[in-house]
Amino acid sequence: MNKETKDPYDVLVVGGGIAGEEASLNLANMGYKVLMVEKDYSIGGKMILLSKVFPTLDCAACITTPKVSEVARHPNITVYTYSEVKEIRKQGEKNFFIRVVKKPRYVIENLCTGCEECEHVCPVVVKDQYQYDLVGRKAVFIPFSIANPRIAAIDLENCVLCGLCEKVCPADAIDFTQQPVEETWQVKTVILATGFKLFDPLKIPRYGYGKYPNVITSMQMERELAPTRPYNNVLRPGDGKMPDNVAYVLCTGSRDATVGNPICSQVCCMYSIKQAQLIMGALPMADVTIYYLHIRAFGKGFCEFYQQAKGMGVEFVKGKIGRIKEKKNGNLILRYEDIESGKVKEAEHDLVILSVGVLANDEIKAAFNGQNLALDDFRFIRQKDELSNPALTNIEGVFVAGAASGPMDIPDSIMSAGAASSEAASYITQKNE
Ligand SMILES: Cc1cc2nc3c(=O)[nH]c(=O)nc-3n(C[C@H](O)[C@H](O)[C@H](O)COP(=O)(O)OP(=O)(O)OC[C@H]3O[C@@H](n4cnc5c(N)ncnc54)[C@H](O)[C@@H]3O)c2cc1C
Ligand code: SF4
Ligand code: SF4
């Protein structure tokens, strides 16, 4: 059902990560009415799930949750979570028709208090996507402790329809009859802040991800190091042992044409150096080795951060990993080419972290009806004028923010969102004159 006011929004922002939040807040503070559509159950994007941020080691959640709350409470911003933008059609200048589908959570949003009673009784346990499969969650679940909105949802694919959650819910918030709700609006401008996808390391079988439990991804290690972590310490998933000899494999799925991604992901060197320092803080007796091809420490304070890691004792080995094999005790043997000496060597580690790359998320392209949203060679949203007007796409009135246009760290995503929001405001204003 449409709201009572017809077409009350000036701007559609697609994606509720740090870039979408920043762009929405900028426009809302200028007085524009923003509709933010996020496909996930919570806003916050990848950043809300990170541990700390390079190069300052500030807590990621502490920086992002105030912005997330501001977005959720802002009188000029309406947030639709667990929703999809099905159609964006330009009908003229400053005139886009949009079609959005709110998917059913099977929980009535304004009744749920987030009390978790339903989670306690639900008999189904499946992998928790927000802890990157390190632990389980129930079929009815609150996505994560700092989710916004902090309300439950039922994953009907895994639900056995036992009805226990419905019986126990003190707010009568469970509603299995919910159906998708389609809404249509006219907006004046659109900002695409749909972020990125992570490289799937199953595509490199010789690294043993998915086969050896002590080979994990960098996003899993982010969760192990975050304040809202799945375990109370850094543990290896295979046997719960505290690791004491950790390896990072940089460029997993980046700068590698054989897996279809020849470009640099820009953030993996720095987030690995960050994690190495955090592991040394959490496990002071642990050794950490980073296997790299080149270290890309190009931003403000990044080189110093790299030197700081070296000073703390992180070992850097310029080497290309050929394959990883598991020993009976769960330790891993890394066979690699030592680039400095040109020799093939082997090293044993008890936990291996694959520093997975950043891939394009091109799914919003399918929503464009009547006009073709241009993508670049790597399927990121093409910036029409990358050097002098980086927020412009090929469709006038549609702007891009954050990692949707290419790999980018958080400060750059925020700056890019600033550019997109000012371009969007200027587009609306110019056409008003
Ligand atoms: C392991 C790891 C560690 C990192 N550590 C750091 C760090 O320490 N410091 C740093 O500066 N950077 C770090 N980064 C990079 C950081 O995650 C990105 O810079 C940042 O997340 C980019 O924000 P974004 O909003 O553009 O994209 P995202 O965070 O990807 O957010 C995009 C949002 O859009 C939503 N979305 C996607 N498609 C749609 C759609 N079709 N409809 C509706 N919603 C949609 C997504 O669900 C998501 O909420 C790290 C990255 C990784 C992988
Ligand atoms: S659905 Fe009910 S039981 Fe579950 S968190 Fe919400 S209010 Fe609590
Ligand atoms: S009805 Fe589904 S979600 Fe609710 S308790 Fe049973 S299995 Fe869990």
Overview of this protein structure:
The chain is an alpha/beta fold and 433 residues long. The protein folds into 3 domains: 11-102 and 180-195 and 361-432, 3-Layer(bba) Sandwich (FAD/NAD(P)-binding domain), CATH 3.50.50.60; 104-178, Alpha-Beta Plaits (2-Layer Sandwich), CATH 3.30.70.20; 199-358, FAD/NAD(P)-binding domain (3-Layer(bba) Sandwich). Helix content is 21%, strand content 26%. It has helices at 18-29, 60-73, 117-121, 164-168, 218-225, 268-282, 302-312, 410-432; strands at 11-14, 34-37, 52-53, 58-59, 77-80, 83-92, 95-102, 125-127, 136-138, 140-141, 153-154, 181-187, 189-192, 196-198, 215-217, 245-252, 287-292, 315-326, 332-338, 343-349, 351-356, 358-360, 398-400. The strands form 7 sheets. Strands 15-21-16-17-18-19-20 form a 7-stranded mixed sheet. Strands 5-2-1-13-23 form a 5-stranded parallel sheet. β18 and β19 (332-338) form a beta hairpin. α5 packs parallel to α6. The radius of gyration is 23 Å and the shape is globular. The two termini are 33 Å apart. The structure holds flavin-adenine dinucleotide and iron/sulfur cluster (SF4) (2 copies). One iron/sulfur cluster binds at residues 121-124, 139-140, 154, 159-165.
